[in-house]
Amino acid sequence: MSEDQQREGLEADEADEGVSPFTASVRQLCKQLRAAVEELSQKTEQETEPKKEVAILAAFDEFRSLSIPSSVRKTLGDLRSDFVKPLSGRKREDALMRALSLLGPMSKPSYAEELLSVSLEVFPGMGPKRVSALAKSELRTPYACLFRFPNRYDDRSALAQVSHLQVGQHATFVGEVLESEALDGGVRNNYGNRGAKRPVLRALLGDSTGSIECTWFHAPALVRELVTPGTRLRVTGDVRRYKFEKQMTHPDLERLEDGGEVMGTPDDEPSARENELQSLRDIAPEYGTPGALPPRVVRELFQHAVEQYADLVPGYLPAEIVQGRELPTVGNSLRGIHQPEADADFYALRSAQTKFHERLVLEEFYLLECGLALRSEMSARAPGISMPHAPEEIEADQASLPFTLTKAQRRVVAEILKDLTKPHPMHRLLQGDVGCGKTVVAFLAALAAARGGYQSALMAPTELLAEQHAASLSNLIEAGGLLTSLRIGLLTASVPKAGADELRRQLAAGEIDLVVGTHALVQGEVRFDKLGLAIVDEQHRFGVRQRAALSKKGAEGLEPHVLVMTATPIPRTLALTLWGDLDLSIIDELPPGRLPVKTELLRPGQGQVVMEAIREVTGRGEQVYVVYPLVEESEKMDLLSAVESAQRIAAAFPDLHVEIVHGQLTAEERNAAMARFKKGESHILVSTTVIEVGVDVPNASLMVIEHAERFGLAQLHQLRGRVGRGQAEARCMLISRKKTQDGEARLKAMLETTDGFKIADADLKIRGPGEFLGTQQSGRLPELRLADLLRDARLIPVARESAFATLAQDPGLARHPQLASAVQARWGDRLALSSVG
Ligand code: ADP
Ligand code: MG
């Protein structure tokens, strides 16, 4: 059996799941020791003969191949020496008992954990200064070092000839030190003269093709030792120009074995060169300069971490996945990443696509998904409000709508209604592109709740949206015969006090079925009679805490059902990770008759095209949005240009009514202007992004976005979604004033597709997941250490399936104590695992 297989074998052992190879080996050793004690107790004194401890010594030998701290190795070595000579009777018993009592604490997983979290001061060459410098780069423990992966790898097997070195190139060559010279930097005076020069080490290195100067400032002793004439080195660094000469500053040096062709070039002695280079790592990991420490120190730091700590790290992946995907052990993965073999696949390493990466990324996703599975399991068990309803009633409600629901809407309504009948709180995310018709779905859910005798609350991120929801719900109520039974109310900060007080009274008295509002809904004084359903619109504007606050207001102290709606199209795998504890409903269909918005890109100087389009659209009696980037207090210039633009447009169309809406107006002024636009009293709305989310004016058919390059892709998509809601073909004009790389990429995506999911994918690629999700979502963005949501997306479903399977077999993870505590330690706070159930 190879070392690997042995380790694999240990990991597959059920009892040892979730413990490190070190802990598993200690346990194995203890087992042997206990077996010997057992055997001893069954024999009489006379019977016992000195005995060769074959099994015990073999168990000790298991540690040989493990990467564990040298102090621990020494303790084990001392212990082992007791068993080298055969012992008998009392002496044997004493030795066994002594070993067992020493090993007892070591066999607990916490022992390895503590070793992994010691201060880096225990590392050779790490003084307090370096330790605190590293702490600033979040490197405080061996564990942190193991899980800080190289920024990149250097392929040092591709050797350059010195005469061919190019300025600006990062290169490796083999050469000999031809000359070296140490300049001490002049005399320092007692006043710490700042003018004193730094000590410089300068050397000329060359091969048979040419030579190059290398310099070091404050060269450490190690370097000074290496850089002596006659030494053969492998040199890696950036080639720079210095005073017309090529030069390397602080190149990385590796000593070559003595012997071989001294001035050999890559061509003349390939075999000898290969031999001498074998001792060196051909693929060198690069970590940047954490703590501003010299590269050599940094490299030694990581090397030490791997060599002495890698086998203290436990793996949690179930054996089926490990075997099924032929994954290496965690220890081997750490070694494979930090100390790649010379023949490792350089490109796979560089793009983090090796089996080693796969193992560790899966480990990370697995813990996260176990946390999510735990959370959804806990909330599925939590007692909730069952709201039975009659299917005929719901059918009748749907039939009374002024339009027919799309298939997707019907499916989603059915999913929600099914959840509402269960005696456990619903946690559902409703995702659908702008304009797909989420509001009516929410409305039908509230109606079902009302029929079941419960109240609903619909929370929107802005007053404007809350008002719009209330208004469109009123419209639907007026249009639909049966729907009139639903009593709705609006509660925002701008509702006058008397009205708000009355509304609160009605809510508490159960005289209102559905209340629509903003954050005001979750503030302390609002009391419900029987809250059964909480709906949160545009989740990305809403904190998890607000959601939780609303959850506390449920009837009979029970958690209400929660429906979260978002128009931010998030790729499914990402949604699963971010809202993994929510069930997902997707509306992937737009109401019939919607034509894709025709999108054009304009450059400065094409203002005439815009004016013509406005004339054409308004000539047909349709309305126009002109959007400027957000006006901030500090950006008076932008406000000015928005206002000027409004005036220019007003002057050009004297027969039309132009409104301007921006963040510096009071809420009332803004609402009044919006209301006039909605009613068709104004024709052109010049605004800053306050209209971004959710506004619904079906008669608007032209969207002009100024400085389009300044908007994020999701924002552009949201804005464009404001038009094309009616029957007329809509247009969107993107005016780009400045070319930037990301800006152009965003505009290109906008021209290519109107599909929100494709837009989201593009956005994700341009910005990366962290950025994409924005700060508002940070409450949900899991902090992943190794895994990259985008790069590793394909592994999420693997980890998820496996985690949910584990939880299905072992609810609450009672039979996986190690896994349970690892999940708790890593994600407990983030996922509020203790607060559920
Ligand atoms: P969003 O999902 O972006 O919140 P809305 O709920 O605001 O979308 O709906 C957009 C528009 O589509 C509204 O005017 C709404 O009345 C209308 N609508 C919704 N569902 C349908 C449907 N099935 N058929 C026709 N129009 C619909
Ligand atoms: Mg909406």
Folded structure, characterized:
The structure is a single chain. α15 packs across α30 (796-809). Strands 11-12-10-13-14-9-15 form a 7-stranded parallel beta sheet, with helices on both faces. The protein has a 6-stranded parallel beta sheet with strand order 16-21-20-17-19-18, sandwiched between helices. The chain has 837 residues and is of the alpha/beta class. The longest helix has 27 residues, at 355-381. Residues 1-15, 187-195, 259-279 and 773-781 have low confidence and may be disordered. The chain starts with a helix and ends in a 10-residue tail after the last helix. The chain has 31 helices and 21 strands. Bound molecules: adenosine-5'-diphosphate (ADP) and magnesium ion. Magnesium ion binds at residues 438-439, 537, 567, 694.
Task: Summarize the topology.
Layout: H1 3-12, H2 21-41, H3 54-61, H4 70-81, H5 89-106, H6 109-116, H7 128-136, H8 142-146, E1 152-155, E2 170-183, E3 200-207, E4 210-217, H9 221-226, E5 232-242, E6 245-249, E7 252-255, H10 270-277, E8 283-286, H11 295-309, H12 319-324, H13 330-338, H14 346-350, H15 355-381, H16 391-399, H17 407-421, E9 427-432, H18 438-451, E10 455-459, H19 463-479, E11 488-491, H20 497-509, E12 514-517, E13 531-537, H21 544-551, E14 561-566, H22 572-578, E15 583-587, E16 598-602, H23 607-619, E17 623-627, H24 636-652, E18 658-661, H25 667-679, E19 684-687, E20 700-705, H26 713-720, E21 731-735, H27 741-752, H28 756-767, H29 769-773, H30 796-809, H31 817-827
Bound molecules: adenosine-5'-diphosphate and magnesium ion.
Residues 403-406, 409, 432, 434-440, 567, 591, 694, 696, 698, 725 line the site of adenosine-5'-diphosphate.
